[in-house]
Amino acid sequence: MSKERDLEEFHEKAKKYDASQIQVLEGLEAVRKRPGMYIGSTSSEGLHHLVWEIVDNSIDEAMAGFATTIEVIIEKDNSITVTDDGRGIPIDIQEKTSRPAVETVFTVLHAGGKFGGGGYKVSGGLHGVGSSVVNALSSFLEVIVQKNGKRYYQKYKRGQVLSDLETIGKTNLHGTTVHFLPDPEIFQETTVFEYKKLTRRIQELAFLNRELKIAIKDKRDDETHSPQKDEFHYEGGLCSYIEFLNNKKEVLFEDPIYTEGEMDGITVEVAMQYTTDFKNTTLSFANNISTHEGGTHEQGFRTALTRVINDYARKQKILKENEDNLSGEDVREGLTAVISIKHPDPQFEGQTKTKLGNSEVSTITNRLFSDAFQKFLLENPKIGKRIVEKGILAAKARQAAKRAREMTRKKSGLEIANLPGKLADCSSNDPEQTEIFIVEGDSAGGSAKSGRNREFQAILPIRGKILNVEKASMEKILANEEIRSLFTAMGTGFGAEFDVSKVRYHKLVIMTDADVDGAHIRTLLLTLFYRYMRPVVEAGYVYIAQPPLYGVKHGKNITYVQPGANAEDRLKEIISNLSKTPKPIIQRYKGLGEMDDHQLWETTMDPENRLMARISIEDAERANIVFEMLMGDSVEPRREFIEENAHYATLDL
Ligand code: TSJ
User: What average pLDDT score do residues 8-37 get?
Assistant: First the structure.
């Protein structure tokens, strides 16, 4: 069975994660002294957290393919019982401790990595403090393991072993049962569980793991509680989740679009469906943990969604040549999507540690989803058309709203006064029409200023030298006057206040020389955008100007050779088509400074003739990697690296 082979393969891979499996042994006393350190708080939140610490282990067993059924019971006394039908926690005596493995699970604080190893783990990042913490914070905890034809039992009190592991009978069943009572000495605010709160997450787990059957039972029967139970099993998995979320909403097409794929040991699942309303609901998960703050999986999905829809709209000619691409926001209007990835080593970042950080995930999600979605659109042209038309409608509404706002908010004197002195702004203040060129060097900046169309093109010269300090740290770069000017000119604010909707130009064009230093400055700027203006990159607002490589002068005429594939062949062809007299003069442009203002306009800035490369989030991400490399110590690989990586896909605009 391929599932088993996959698992075997995975175990091999998992061995490489040895470093993360280092166990820090510490007494459970520490946990009782500072419970907040281990479970966040001792309020109702922390109390419920105990349940997830236990349930997560059963989920891990299910994700590994060994358990299918989990039951959670709130007992009459507000103790909790969790049961699964997995392999049962190992009971064999460990060499290191001379104790049964199961005892170690409950009595030794495991920091990072987990006993048993391998498999995708819920506990991979956010949790990971585990069952011993629950044990330490419980008045009592009992475990029953069923395996090898026997039933084993052990009990603990506030983390201390009460009796050795014992055999309490025979059985053909297999699985683990844990029963614990949270210690009121620790949970002084409340020890009462909320059925609803537990049920919400249990249902979510059922949506995320379609093989899983998970039940919850409330046995309490008092003034405030009556017995009740629920059972969840969704064979439709994420599609069932979408249907649940879109219940009561009008949908654009019947069945949710679903894709599932695997790459480099990372599995990616996406389900989505459009509704006729305006809201976008995107839920994302990594190893069953909700990633509220988003992250690389959402990023990869969004980029792919926007690109695939625009490509499709162009190919099908639903979007005309003279019309702009649909923005990310446009194509997400009315979208309900659930993204769920499983990763052997998820990295959680952000303020609440609910943002997925693994950079490789954005490319993988992008690729897997792109391929599947592209295929879907080709096979379902009616739905494809409906999706594109919905996006076009969203774009029109957005433009109309913007025009209305522009009417009431004309450029005020104050705004101009606040703009940086170096900036030669344009006269239009419609961001959809306007462009800002960031130009390397004052002399090229001068040519650009006099060559531009001042109606819609703004110029901000950047002094290359200041930036071109090898090993300049991001802090230094941010302290740079001209970089700050750039943020001011963009109008988006900075850091936490960053607001992409305030952007003053929808095209931000980096114009640097076609040499190593130029590539370097470009890398720095792209890194800067990637880290601090990411939404601007995601929206597809960042471009790289493509000045010509050659000019062939023949009498009064100049023919230019644009960069791209076969540039040299194209040069030869131009020359061979010219008469010998006067003799053609070939000029190779190394810097922008070699062109006068008119040439710069004609070749590089005029929307009618120019070639620009639009920067995708992946391009910017690559620049970020190059930048990291630049921060390294040796100089030569650094230079080589810049030269090798300074290629970007070109696109006719
Ligand atoms: F962690 C815990 F003790 F709190 C707990 C663990 C609680 C509950 C309700 C279930 C579990 C649990 C653990 N369910 N299934 C497992 N599986 C293992 O620990 C296990 C079994 C076999 C092997 C093996 O390699 O043979 C490895 C593992 C990790």
Answer: 60
Q: Which residue has the tokens 């931000």?
A: 508
pLDDT at 580: 79
**What are the domain boundaries of the chain?**
7-232, 238-404, 412-547+614-648
Cα 59 to averaged position of ligand 1 atoms, centre (Å):
10
* Cα distance between residue 176 and residue 179, in whole Å: 10
For 421, the 3-state DSSP assignment is coil
In this structure, whether the domain defined by 412-547+614-648 belongs to CATH 3.40.50.670 is answered with yes
Find all residues with CB under 8 Å of 136, minimum gap 6, and list them.
28, 29, 31, 32, 158, 159
User: What is the residue-wise DSSP string for 4-43?
Assistant: HHHHHHHHHHHGGGGGGGPPPP--THHHHH-HHHHHS-SS
Question: Which has more confidence, 481 or 189?
Answer: 189
How confident is the model over 343-388, as pLDDT tens digits?
A: 999 999 988 889 999 999 999 999 999 999 999 999 999 999 999 9
**Candidates 56, 71, 183, 440; catalytic one:** 440
Return the amino acid letter for 236.
G
| CA 87 to ligand 1 center in whole angstroms | 7
- What is the reported pLDDT for 591? 81
Region class of 541: left (phi > 0), else alpha (psi between -120 and 50), else beta = alpha
Active-site residue, from 442, 515, 628, 644: 515
Token reading at 225: 């509680």
- How far apart, in Å, are the Cα atoms of 362 and each of 345, 533, 596? 15, 17, 42
Confidence of residue 644 (pLDDT cuts 50, 70, 90): low
User: 70-84, 261-275, 324-338, 551-565: which range is least confident on average?
Assistant: 551-565
The residue among 49, 13, 538 whose CA lies nearest residue 325 is 538
- Answer yes or no: same fold for 238-404 and 412-547+614-648: no
What is the pLDDT confidence band of residue 487, given thresholds at 50, 70 and 90? confident
C-alpha distances in angstroms, 416 versus 411, 429, 587? 7, 11, 40
Give the ligand 1 atom nearest the CA of 134.
4
Sign of CA dihedral 167, 169, 174, 175: negative
440 assigned to active site: yes
Q: Which one is catalytic: 345, 415, 517, 594?
A: 517
State yes or no: is 597 an active-site residue. no
In order of 50, 84, 121, 288, 302, the CA distances from 56 in angstroms are 10, 11, 8, 9, 29
- Taking the centre of ligand 1 as the mean of its atom positions, its distance from the CA of residue 344, in whole angstroms, is 17
Fold of 7-232: Heat Shock Protein 90 (3.30.565)
CA of 82 to the centre of ligand 1 (A): 12
Across the chain, how many H-helices and E-strands are there? 23, 25
Q: What average pLDDT does the structure give for the chain?
A: 85
* Options 3.40.50.10490, 3.40.50.10090, 3.40.50.150, 3.30.230.10; CATH of 238-404: 3.30.230.10
As for ligand 1, residues whose beta carbon falls within 6 Å of it are 54, 57-58, 61, 82, 84, 86-87, 89-90, 105, 116, 131, 176, 178
**Mean pLDDT, rounded, for 415-432:** 78
Ligand 1 nearest atom to the CA of residue 118, by list position:
29
Q: Give the pLDDT mean for 430-438.
A: 95
Sign of the CA dihedral 388, 393, 395, 396? positive
